[in-house]
Records
---
Amino acid sequence: MPAPRPRKALDGIPLYRAGKPALTEEHKLSSNENPYAPLPGVMERAAAELGRMNRYPDAGMTALYGALSERLGLSAEHFAAGTGSVAVLFSLLTAHLEAGDEIVYAWRSFEAYPIAVDLTGATTVRVPLRADATHDLDAMADAVTERTKVVLVCTPNNPTGPVVTADELERFLDRVPDHVLVVVDEAYVEFVGDPDAAKGLDALAGHDNVVVLRTFSKAYGLAGLRVGYAIARPEVAESIRKATAPFTVTDVAQAAALASLDAQDALDERVAAIVRERGAMVEALRAQGWDVPRTEANFVWLPLGEHALDFATACDPVSVRPFAGEGVRISVGTPAVNAQLIELAGAWRSARGIS
Ligand SMILES: *Cc1c(COP(=O)(O)O)cnc(C)c1O
């Protein structure tokens, strides 16, 4: 019987499977979520939009683009928002890649990249991270061919944590041809403290082929409402908006994002608290003997190799994210749950006689 068949590109794409539910929401260190309640004013302004749910949202996202424009000093045409920066990336790749094209990204990096890329039918070129879990931008530049259309640079890198430096990114952009889009994924930019870290906006100021991805999901704590955006030169931003379904970001989500932008002081305090907790977590784990790569995000990486799954099972009470054969990513949570994680990590080492 002939039956409808989806595109061949789907054959290699795994179905997304949600992780095991955590003991409580606070005990979930597996998704890099913000453990704190929404910023002041966010609930009220989002709730005020709920009574208008019979109306379509503002598809032009005028207020959101206006606020971002004012905040970042770039005209509104530089922005393209969507339901999370992952959705924006899907739109961007749909707009710029087709079968026969190549895309280069580091590996291990964000697990959504292969899904977004494979859907386009383009060919993936993965460049291994260096031993210290950083991007090898020289090797990535070497991997660019005349077929390459897009390069993804995740900084800080999910799941390993380190940033790309400004010097490294500049040298890379000087080597990459101007027709190759370089996507700088800054999902965790608010947590970065390293003064040498690359800044996507600086790179964009000097290079027309740069696209910066930002999100309200992590530092701003709006993961459940789905708002992210790209910053790019107007022609590139327009290509992303064209490839995005209309009316995706709800007015509730837009209002929450706007209110979050207005709560800068509270955001700064919250980010500072998470960064402090991150420092304490790294220090405690290193004191136990763990090899923890430098992290500038709201998570830490333990390169456990073949022990990744076993360690994750041992940490079940706080639900961490294992990558089989590679390592475990642990999000920075509340102080109490972080302390629990550190205890479990120490117990795991003792039980195996590692000190
Ligand atoms: C979390 C994350 C995103 C953003 O996800 P959205 O919720 O879709 O905005 C983007 N890139 C990386 C690397 C991430 O870890």
---
Amino acid sequence: MAGGLTLSAVLTAFIALVLVHETCSATAKVNHHCAPSSCGNIHNISFPFRLKNDPEKCGESSYELSCDENNHTVLSLFERKYYVQEINYNNYTIRIVDSGIQKDNYSSTPSYSLNRHNFSQYPSAYTTYLLKRTEYEGISFSELSWSVVWMSCEKPVNSPFYLDASTCNIDNGDQYPSNSSISHFKRYRYVKVGRTNATDVVDLCKVEQMFITSWPGNDDPSNISCADVHNELVYGFELSWLRGFCKS
Ligand SMILES: *[C@@H]1O[C@H](CO)[C@@H](O)[C@H](O)[C@H]1NC(C)=O
Ligand SMILES: *[C@@H]1O[C@H](CO)[C@@H](O)[C@H](O)[C@H]1NC(C)=O
Ligand SMILES: *[C@@H]1O[C@H](CO)[C@@H](O)[C@H](O)[C@H]1NC(C)=O
Ligand SMILES: *[C@@H]1O[C@H](CO)[C@@H](O)[C@H](O)[C@H]1NC(C)=O
Ligand SMILES: *[C@@H]1O[C@H](CO)[C@@H](O)[C@H](O)[C@H]1NC(C)=O
Ligand SMILES: *[C@@H]1O[C@H](CO)[C@@H](O)[C@H](O)[C@H]1NC(C)=O
Ligand SMILES: *[C@@H]1O[C@H](CO)[C@@H](O)[C@H](O)[C@H]1NC(C)=O
Ligand SMILES: *[C@@H]1O[C@H](CO)[C@@H](O)[C@H](O)[C@H]1NC(C)=O
């Protein structure tokens, strides 16, 4: 496990550096005199982003967004649908939210499980960390998100870091159809927010689903409420498109 993680970290860094190189070259090459495009609440869609029907010379195809019939700005990531909440050109981040989440519906959950390793499995135009180059530290990474993990356990867990999911009115789908052998055991469901590594997963617990969030509202992982969990999911998460590396 440790070996696997290290390898994927190295691969991520490698892919990031390749992409930085490509993005920087592209930035240098492209002469982008295109008026910003607009969709719904996102009024400033400009280089490197483009909207699907923009003139071909505008933006880059790897940063193409689309505008759906409800005026949501849509980013397709791993062939899944995410809604764009905010594009920050000052720090090269884009904040997106799973299209399955409904703001006012506390029972809604993301449609797709997502964790930081998804981004190291395939080359992606986005990273889950910000790459910075400073004069003194060289290249440094800072993570833009942390995880929200749904777990199911065979025994009750008494830990301030584990929120009892049965107190939240959240329907995250029945992972175990009633005729499967595992359903003969009662399972206890928990939500854990924050950095979670293998040693944090208590014995007899199993990760069911993972999401990521950048919600700045509660930075105390031992004191989260059901409302916090909903807010984490509704806020979504930031990704970086790496141009910062070129500019600084
Ligand atoms: C839109 O984004 C561009 C960077 O691509 C920036 O120069 C411009 O100031 C932004 N405009 C607004 C209104 O935020
Ligand atoms: C989408 O935005 C356009 C332009 O602002 C507007 O004319 C249209 O009514 C909007 N559609 C919906 C479903 O809100
Ligand atoms: C990027 O900028 C936005 C808007 O100013 C801010 O909300 C967000 O926290 C910033 N992200 C980082 C990683 O600094
Ligand atoms: C709220 O979300 C749940 C779970 O996705 C869904 O079953 C329910 O229909 C939604 N309620 C409304 C009012 O949309
Ligand atoms: C992320 O990876 C997990 C497996 O590690 C997979 O189940 C999930 O569908 C992936 N998410 C997306 C959005 O592709
Ligand atoms: C459990 O039920 C589902 C649908 O009801 C069925 O497709 C599946 O084959 C069943 N599994 C077993 C192990 O009987
Ligand atoms: C996992 O987290 C614990 C504390 O939560 C920490 O002590 C430990 O060093 C971490 N392990 C790894 C491999 O990061
Ligand atoms: C936990 O959070 C609640 C509100 O979110 C706050 O009132 C309470 O003081 C916090 N408790 C601790 C021990 O930090």
